[in-house]
Design goal:
The protein is of the alpha/beta class and 440 residues long. It folds into two domains: 134 residues, Roll (Urease, subunit C, domain 1); 289 residues, Alpha-Beta Barrel (TIM Barrel), CATH 3.20.20.140. It contains 17 helices and 16 strands. The strands form two sheets. Strands 1, 2, 3, 4, 5, 14, 15 and 16 form an eight-stranded mixed beta sheet that branches. Strands 6-7-8-9-10-11-12-13 form an eight-stranded parallel beta sheet. Strand 15 and strand 16 form a beta hairpin. Helix 7 packs across helix 8, helix 8 runs parallel beside helix 9 and helix 9 packs parallel to helix 10. The longest helix has 18 residues. Bound molecules: N-(iminomethyl)-L-glutamic acid and fe (iii) ion. The site of fe (iii) ion (FE) has 5 residues, from loops.
Length: 440
């Protein structure tokens, strides 16, 4: 279950993009399905002077402009087709941001200042800042106010080329506030033309009123939050922040087992602050383990055999001012499937720009420009179990595309801190970036 406006797809006009300088198709390189690993991450399937035809919110053909203009169906139907002349710009699959926390009210500026003065993420949490500092705002807010915040984040994400977003609750931490957060995600998703995958993160941190009684809180997550989210179809995934100061391995296993009983898939924040041995969780077939800064050496060969994606979020390392970044090279070179996401949240990663995450991955994690694109598209899609529908430009897939005002795809991670996305197509709906400053 992902949330988008499927019912309206049928009425969407046909759309033809032509004169694409580089079309990054990322079409399947082998017959096997599943996330890309190793060398496969570098294969972008670039078509020069490309064209894409979309009908009813789906991609129907992909090729060169010359072939598209010769196509008999197009010749006959040309006046019913909206044409977009890309004038040599680059087109990628719409980005898949597979890890975000958009349901919050205020930025955490006190944390920001304290960190500049030298406090660590954990010290701040102990002093009453951190995740708990965002909870009061969400508990007090009405559902519509939260939905407006989420919608505005989704809109800004689309302006940066993102068409599919995983959105977590996690700043409510009561049954009512977590359900309100998931409903806000649903309400915002209904107004946004892209696709949203909702995740219950009731186990983000133990709330103040349960301090010293974390087992009672885990019970509430398992016995109340998960059943309600499943019954009301408010979440597709259950996430847990498994780390020092948050939830233990035993808590996480209990929560995963409850999710499984209620038919929800699982993912988790893992190894952000400390090393956790991951193989015992593999029996729950997690869609992804996220952060992965301190991954155990012995887990790497296990992960290389599985489709559980390691989702790296370098925005958090950047914003926390850390010297170390997740060991992307080690993971990729060992065959672990890797995705990139923003981790958009008010505490550790207030960015909703996938190109920024890609730039950080190139400069600080030594991922090549080709690898960052594949990690932010097709592997992000697999991290959400949407690889069959999203993440590449192939006939039959959803019409999710991003157009960049650059001549070479490597410029996407190269120009950091500015947005070069000129247009985004979300399930066939075109959105133009009116504030774009062009350099060419
Ligand atoms: O992914 N690590 C846990 N959760 C978020 C941080 C949330 C916050 O600080 O508000 C993260 O970094
Ligand atoms: Fe996160």
């Amino acid at each position: 279950m992902s949330l988008n406006r499927k019912s309206k797809s049928q009425t969407k006009p046909a759309l033809l993009l032509i004169n694409i300088g580089q079309l990054l198709a990322l079409h399947s390189v082998s017959h096997k399905s599943g996330p890309r690993r190793g060398q496969e991450l570098r294969e972008l399937g670039i078509i020069e002077d490309g064209a894409v035809l979309c009908v009813g919110g789906k991609i129907v053909s992909v090729g060169t402009t010359k072939d598209a203009l010769r196509d008999p169906w197009l010749k006959k139907n040309r006046k019913n087709v909206t044409e977009i002349d890309c004038a040599g710009e680059v087109v990628t699959p719409g980005f898949v941001d597979s890890h975000t926390h958009p349901v919050f009210v205020s930025p955490r500026l006190v944390d920001f200042e304290k960190r500049i003065e030298g406090a660590s993420y954990q010290e701040m949490a102990q002093a009453g800042g951190g995740i708990r500092a965002s909870v009061d705002g969400v508990r007090r807010a009405g559902k519509s106010a939260l939905a407006a915040r989420v919608f505005s984040a989704l809109h800004d994400m689309a302006i940066h080329g993102t068409t599919t977003v995983e959105a977590k609750s996690g700043y409510g931490l009561t049954v009512e506030s977590e359900m309100k957060s998931l409903q806000a995600i649903r309400e915002a998703a209904a107004r946004w033309p892209g696709t949203v995958v909702p995740t219950l993160l009731g186990a983000h941190v133990v709330p103040r009123e349960f301090q010293g009684r974390s087992l009672n809180y885990v019970e509430i997550v398992c016995k109340e939050m998960i059943p309600r989210a499943a019954r009301q179809k408010l979440a597709q995934f259950v996430d847990v922040f498994c780390d020092r100061g948050a939830f233990t391995v035993e808590d996480t296993e209990k929560i995963f087992a409850a999710a499984e009983r209620h038919g929800l898939s699982v993912r988790a924040h893992m190894c952000q602050l400390t090393e956790t041995v991951l193989w015992p969780f593999l029996r729950f077939d997690p869609a992804s383990f996220d952060h992965m800064d301190h991954v155990n050496q012995d887990d790497i060969p296990q992960l290389a055999k599985r489709d559980t994606v390691a989702t790296l979020v370098p925005g958090a390392n950047y914003f926390l001012g850390l010297d170390e970044y997740p060991p992307a090279r080690k993971l990729i070179d060992a065959g672990v499937p890797v995705a990139l996401a923003t981790d958009y949240n008010p505490g550790t990663s207030p960015t909703l720009s996938m190109p920024m995450a890609m730039s950080l991955a190139s400069t600080h994690m030594k991922m090549s420009p080709a690898e960052v694109i594949a990690a932010g598209t097709i592997n992000g899609a697999w991290a959400l179990r949407l690889g069959h529908r999203k993440g590449s430009i192939e006939p039959g897939k959803d019409a999710d595309l991003a157009v960049f005002a650059v001549a070479d795809y490597r410029e996407i991670p190269y120009w950091f801190g500015v947005n070069r996305c000129s247009k985004t197509i979300l399930n066939g709906t075109v959105m133009s970036n009116v504030s774009l400053v062009r350099t060419r």
